[in-house]
Design goal:
The chain has one domain: Metal-dependent hydrolases (TIM Barrel). It is of the alpha/beta class. 45% of the residues are buried. The protein has an eight-stranded parallel β-sheet with strand order 1-2-3-4-5-6-7-8, with helices on both faces. Helix 1 links the parallel strand 1 and strand 2. The protein contains twelve helices and eight strands. The mean pLDDT is 97. The chain is globular. Bound molecules: (1E,3Z)-4-hydroxybuta-1,3-diene-1,2,4-tricarboxylic acid. The site of (1E,3Z)-4-hydroxybuta-1,3-diene-1,2,4-tricarboxylic acid has 10 residues, from loops.
Amino acid sequence: MSERIVSWHPDPSRPRYVPSPGAVDAHCHVFGPQVRFPFSAKAKYLPQDAGPDMLFALRDRLGFARNVIVQASCHGTDNSATLNAIAKSGGRARGIAVVDPAISEQGLAALHNGGIRGIRFNFLKRLIDDAPKDKFLEVSKRLPQGWHVVIYFEANILEELRSFMDAIPVPLVIDHMGRPDVAQGPDGPDMRALRRLIDSRPDIYVKTTCPDRLDAAGYPWKDFIRAVGPLVADYPNRVLWGTDWPHPNMQDAVPDDGRLVDVIPRIAPTDALRRKLLVINPMALYWPEERDA
Ligand code: 0GY
């Protein structure tokens, strides 16, 4: 693997929808810059640099106030690039780390001080070599106070992961809703399985993200909107939203971030729903001290 890929739009449109004041982009990443933060030897893709300055310029262009930066698989378990971006954000970013499950208490405390508020378990075989459930469970039991676990999996292994997820003793956030087949519609088997999962405990959140990844019919992502709108309406306290910028591995179908933002009012048609999706729910997970102040 030698070619460094570009998966983000060079000039995203300005969205028509203006996000609620204080809106949080709760799923995005940074790549590098590689000279300071080299990619992992195990990386399954090598992106061009997409560092904090680019991310924050996009945040401002799209009308968001804050970011939650999720450690991307290409950086392995070295969270330095994510921590660097958080440090540069002036308090307007927090993050999700990927850790070696054997990480020490001091290592976890250092991540907390750097603005990390959870860890991610990635079950996508095309992105990681192994996902040891027993070790993941062990580390999930000794996370700092207030942290949660983010899980990335595809719909075909949801049932297989149920007992593992049930045993995680902190809140769970599901990346991209566990990648349901949105073409099945709002009552299709994938969305029903997702609803059963959400119903199974009060502290599961789902990211209603990535129409570009999930809707095979492409823009204007009608299947995504049809499947996800009812989910937001039925679970307004359990949903998050994010751009997924810089859209890892989407180099063959790079989405326009402005169009992604314009999906928000389609899946959350009232101001009250949008405030939950973009402000209240992510603030509770990532900046709870501001909510409690
Ligand atoms: C995403 C999705 C992907 C990649 C990663 O960590 C990653 O590399 O999450 C993907 O390729 O589906 O959320 O960014």
